[in-house]
Every structure is written in structure tokens, then in C-alpha cells.
Amino acid sequence: MNQERFDYRTGILGSPLEVGRDEWNALLAQQAQPTPFLRHEFLAALHETQCAVADTGWAPRFVTLTDDRTNRLVAAAPVYLKGHSYGEYVFDWAWADAYKRNGLEYYPKLLCAVPFTPVQGTRLLAVDDNARRHLAATLVAFAEQAEVSSLHVLFPTPQEAQTFADVGMMLREGVQFHWINAGYRDFDDFLATLEQKKRKNIRAERRKVHEAGVTFRRVRGEDVTDAEWRFFNRCYRQTYREHFSSPYLNLDFFRRIGETMPENLLLVIAEREGKPIASSLVAYQRGAASEAGTASPSGTLYGRYWGALEHVPCLHFETAYYQPLEFCIEEKLATFEGGAQGEHKMARGFLPTATHSAHWLAHPAFADAVARFLSSETETIHAYVDELREHNPFRN
């Protein structure tokens, strides 16, 4: 047996600021599927602007493994002690309700995830597979000792999901809709691959926005002014207001990531008669091929937030989908992940993609019940994806 796995020192940190930015980001850079949302700058911004802190039900409990011999950080995971299930996008409200009906407490629970960010990516930052397996086992051991009801890992990579299954966690599947860049020359080249009806509808939607006198500016993160951040924040808050909900993020957060990680951000601003009326914020991660300047698409664009202060028919689709798609094609990004849910995205060239989560429940009877539920749910999800694929929007 490799003795190295027993040489790790475990840390439970009450803030992402307790681990060095360079150490954390160096680990992230070694992963097969890094995302901008796992950058230290993003997690620190959530904490420093009071968006993901104990007072909002997101108490950091970041888990780290340090090599005792070299004092080197070899593994880390973003973990939070949660007092609710808001901002997660993998829904366990029914589980919490079942606990309550049986006189048991579901909260607090432990959550390994990026707050408010339903994006699949690395959750176990590690220098090698040995450290990764040990970190997964450490998370379960932490949950067992912390007197919590459960541990949940949201949107890990498929490989990590298997690692969590190997340490006894139950797996759950979900569905998102992702757009794949097949090396398109431009937007019309992409449209040519769609069924005629889909192609016609998209052109009609874009024409309505154009005929309404709306124009667009795509502003890279490093060029976004404070006035533009303030305008975007108004749009973002308006979206939540229209849904009778409260926003998770604030202007300070957007300003902070604009300062610390602008190379990962793009702001789309819609204007009419010189006045901004809507905007969307997307994030992107360049891949190795993109950075090397090769022809093959590489990297990912992530749809995040949008809002409008005026109603214009089809403005949402142009601001949050078609403008980012054009950016993807121009920048040779391979994938556009449109965010959580949304069958309507298929008509715009997005295809169903499986997502994963892993779950551990301390109560044996509830763990058995959830395992049975997940088995049935997985069959339903697979049937749903099969049905969706029968409605593929592409010609071939």
C-alpha cells in the first residue's frame, strides 16, 4: 500500500481567505476541467462581499489536505455548512420536508459546490489521483463527525462522481442544455445546420430585435466601466424582482470580480436610441487550443445572468443567447453552457447534457429511501433525455 496517502494533514477553514490565492489557483490549473468559478478570486469575492457567508446560510468550511513532509497544499474543496437549500440548483426540498414530517432536522447540511453556480467542473482540486481519493474520503469522514444530516456534492465532473461513488455516496443525474461549436465560420454557418423551421424562427427573432432599433455592444471584462456594472446590476435585480425573489449577489460582488478576474468576463449591453435597456453577463474559460491560437474550438462560455429595463419582443434571446453564440464562434470557444434547465434552448441549437451530483445521508432509513428514489429518478431522466434527443434541432 502507498504510505503517502497517510501523510496528509486535514484543514477545515472558516474562510476561503485562509488559503493562499496562488496555492489554490495552482491546484486549479492542474485539473482536467477547471472553471472560472473555482478560481480563488471568485470564491473570495463571494465571501468578502457577504454573498456566501454564515449570515446568508453559506458558512465556509473549506477542506484542505497538506503534505506533512513538504507543507505543500495537495488537495482542496469548496465546502459550506448550509442552513437552507437556496442557490443550489439540485433540489432536495422534498428530502428536507420528509425529515421535518418525521421530527428530524435536515439542516445544517454540508455542501461541496460553488454558490449560486450550476456549472459542472472540478470539485476535488488535487495534485494526483491519490490525493483526490483521499480528499473524497475526508469529506465523508468530516460529514460523519460534524453532526450534520447529509453531505452533497453538486456538479462534479463525471470522473469525480465515480470517485464519490467509490467512497459510498449516492449519485444523482440531471440535465442541462449545451451548445457545441462544430468549427462554425460565423453565425450563418451555424444556422445552416439547423432544421429549416428552427433556422427561420431564429432569424425572425433576431429581425424583431433589429427592427425595434436595438443595437448591441459586447464589452470585455477589462473594459467594463463602473457605470456599466451599475447598469448591469439594475438589470440583474430587475430579473429577480419580476420573479418575486431576492437576488443572491450584489453590486460589490460584480465590481470585485470585474477587478480581479476580468479576463473571464463578457458583458453584453443592449441599447436603443443610445440608451442602455438590457444586459447579460457571461463568463468564459479559454482552452489550451484557444490559447495556442490553433483552429480547433477550445474552451467554454458560461451563460450567467441577464435582465432588461424595457420590454422588447425576443430581446432575451438576442441578449443572452445569440450575442454570446456569436462571441463563441468568433473566439473559437468549443462549448456554450446555457445554465440550469430550459428545454426552449433546444430550438436554438442546444443539446441535452447529463449533469451529476453525489449525496450521503447520515440516517440509514432515509439513506435507503433516497437510494430507491434516485434509482427511479435516474430511469426517468434517461427516458427524458432519449425523448429530447428525438427532437434534435439539427438537419442531420
From TrEMBL:
Q: Which Pfam families match?
A: FemAB_like
Please give the name of this protein.
Answer: GNAT family N-acetyltransferase
Taxonomic source organism: Paraburkholderia kururiensis
